[in-house]
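Re-run requested by the PI after the first attempt was lost when the workstation crashed. Everything re-entered from the original request form. Ligand of interest: adenosine-5'-diphosphate.
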Amino acid sequence: MVSHELRTPLTSIMGFLDLALLCSGLLPRPLSPEAEQLLGKMETGLKRAIAQVEVEARLVEELLEVSRLELHQFELSLQRENLVTIVQETVANQQQSARTRHIELVLPPDEVVPVLADAGRIGQALTNYLTNALKYAPIDQPVWVHLEVTGRSARVSVRDQGPGLTAEQQQRVWERFYQVAAPGHHGPGRGLGLGLAIAKTIIEQHQGQVGVESAPGRGSTFWFSLPLADGSNQA
Ligand code: ADP
């Protein structure tokens, strides 16, 4: 119910803003110079308002997600999936929305890495790692995504050349609402400090593990591992 109450007003605000922008685009032009100037200002304002509503909608989604996790109302739909496909699709989606950035994907020789997983949720965990790497690393530096198979598990890691983290920060980043209060840790786009807590819960519900390797000034590698599905050919 709360989730409905929070989402509905945002959806209608967004609808009205879009409509206002559409109507102003349909006005017969040209108008008087004063009216053109006024309209220009209004359109800029409307576009900013739309961007802000999008931020708000994303934050509300994250908050709802974290309360679902706490209430254990978070259902996984486990299927036999190819982790290679999940990783490829997630990277392609991120590359699509960050076209100027370079994401380097390194895959194992195996064409199929079978896992028992909820593909959407694993994609969400990887997306959270990737958006952080893109947010905190310098824009002219690549971000690496590796998928490796070792023994009976598969490991996905995301490496960046961002500000890095101290040992204490490496432990605390998994806590809900924790954000590092240091220069270089305020990337564009506000967050609530929930992305990594959500990723950790998702991976642990898949009987997997998460971790980070980092040092201040030396970038970070966030990783998660998942057990391979039974019946795979791995040694
Ligand atoms: P947020 O949405 O605020 O980024 P997260 O839970 O995803 O929340 O991350 C928690 C905090 O961990 C961030 O606020 C940031 O300070 C730090 N952090 C996460 N990923 C990285 C990274 N790749 N490099 C440096 N700091 C990071």
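Saved to the shared folder this time. The longest strand covers residues 143-150.
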